[in-house]
Amino acid sequence: MLMKQAAARIAPLTGLAQEEVLKLMEVPPQETMGDVAFPCFVLARTLKKAPAVIAGDVAAALQGEGIDAEAAGPYVNIRFDRDVYAADMLEELGSESFGKLQLGQGERVVIDMSSPNIAKPFGIGHLRSTVIGAALYRLYNEAGYTSVSVNHLGDWGTQFGKQIAAYKRWGSEQALQADPIRNSLELYVRFHDEAEKDPTLEIEARDWFRRLEQGDEEAKQLWSFFVNVSMQEFNRMYKRLNVTFDHTLGESFYNDKMGAVVEELQAKGLLEESDGALVVRLDEENMPPCLIIKKDGTTIYPTRDLATAIYRHHVMKADRLVYVVGGEQKLHFNQVFTVLSKMGHEWATTCEHIPFGLMRFEGRKMSTRRGKVVFLQEVLDEAAARALQIIQEKNPNLEQPELVAEAVGVGAIVFGDLRNNRLNDVDFSLEDAVSFEGETGPYVQYTHARIQSVLAKAAETGTYDSSAAQEGTSNSSGIVGDTSWSLLKLLCDYPAYLERAVLRSEPSVIAKYTIDVAQAFNRFYHAERIADAAPQVKSFRVKLAKYTAERLACNLSLLGVQAPERM
Ligand code: ARG
């Protein structure tokens, strides 16, 4: 808001359009230098003067009417009269339309997210895809897009042949029902161990998968049993993470849609034989060939993704297709998108892989083969247990401590993930993530709860007239202290952060901003009195606290984290 104000006043002095000025504006490296800065380099050529001379002229012309301008070399540093501007800024924060962007103009973005594999553990990679995807879903909506989420379950592939073969040999319904993923995993691990000694197992597995692809009753029944029990377990997790999907369509959904893709590839002369398999060559693009049909005649992961993309574009009417999937699948998506474009689908350019880095959990990695895996459920349980411990120490009288602990524990995991640039590899430390201090979810939640009690106390110690805040700030000075001014400016900057987060598909922009807001509030809270300040001052500060709490709660909810009223 301040930048806009400054740009409006600078533009006529320079011959530049207001928009151009706005783009050039900066925030000075130190707050003491001013609120905003305007660099004069670009004007040197047209005005035929040195930037520093121009800065001097502009500063002199700007001075006055609530602005204090000063040239510092080629920059004009501008300071606003807080007592003049604070009221407008507060009003803007309170307006209905604040923070709503129209970047997307209703464009439909189909988001491929979560997408765990049936009969395998829900891994940390799937957790990242789920929380990053869910955050993007809400951020895109907030910015004027229409988000559509799809859980692209890994429910097809030769591994189901192995799963059925192993189940037939050593499995039981009761064991699988009791602990689906763990039991599936045990069977899977046992299959691989025993197959090293007994090669007939592999043959058996291939046979079962072929039967499955051909629609054999028994194979299909076992398969849907596996899908159902896995889904029950995944759904428990989604509930805890508070994530829902507009569509859950596994890879198997595309079984009857791949024939058309293969025919289209054939008709367009893109399929070539290679070692008995059918591939699309991508030599010109410097990529290995994209495998379409395996030697044994079965389809494969990329074939299903081709059919999926076509379906999402045509049937789901996607304007944009994004895939929130780990960086290790970069080549796969490159290949799929390139094949789509070779097929002549111009909309291939609307497909985007949104990768993220690896996450280790206290140094442990994921591996489903050897059975050494981290189960997300255990991670969430552990986080909630630790949160409960901290809460009971800090606030032994809190009502429903388990509920709050669940919100804090799960929130710690979600926030702890989202605060990292998504491309970074993360070594996740539970202890750090659950801490109430530092750049954590619980720190933000705690700040939010603290504001609630400040507001409650302020209401007790006398009513305040909310309209007095505006009057008060415009005709008296000294109401807006340094820390409240910094906080107020930061709150007004929210739309710029939202825009950046959306344009980069980067929830960490919002997570980091949220921490900055919480820190700015705590500085304000320690430096300036709220509940027992003089009436006009109190009114302003209470409002500021209230908008801060609303910002924190809104941002947490965009990220998928709850904001308990008390902690
Ligand atoms: N199920 C896959 C895996 O766990 C992820 C699927 C991602 N989405 C897609 N359309 N390929 O690796």
TrEMBL record:
Its EC number is 6.1.1.19. GO terms for molecular function: arginine-tRNA ligase activity; ATP binding. SUPFAM superfamilies: Anticodon-binding domain of a subclass of class I aminoacyl-tRNA synthetases, Arginyl-tRNA synthetase (ArgRS), N-terminal 'additional' domain, Nucleotidylyl transferase. The keyword GTP-binding does not apply. It holds the Pfam family Arg_tRNA_synt_N. It catalyses: tRNA(Arg) + L-arginine + ATP = L-arginyl-tRNA(Arg) + AMP + diphosphate. Gene3D superfamilies: Arginyl tRNA synthetase N-terminal domain, HUPs, Isoleucyl-tRNA Synthetase, Domain 1. One of its GO terms (biological process) is arginyl-tRNA aminoacylation. Residues 1-80 form the Arginyl tRNA synthetase N-terminal domain. Keywords: Aminoacyl-tRNA synthetase, ATP-binding, Cytoplasm, Ligase, Nucleotide-binding, Protein biosynthesis. InterPro entries: Arg-tRNA-ligase, Arg-tRNA-synth_N, Arg-tRNA-synth_N_sf, ArgRS_core, DALR_anticod-bd, Rossmann-like_a/b/a_fold, tRNAsynth_Ia_anticodon-bd. The keyword Cytoplasm applies. It is found in: Cytoplasm. It comes from the Bacteria. One of its GO terms (cellular component) is cytoplasm. Residues 444-567 form the DALR anticodon binding domain. Belongs to the class-I aminoacyl-tRNA synthetase family. Monomer. This is Arginine--tRNA ligase. The gene is argS.
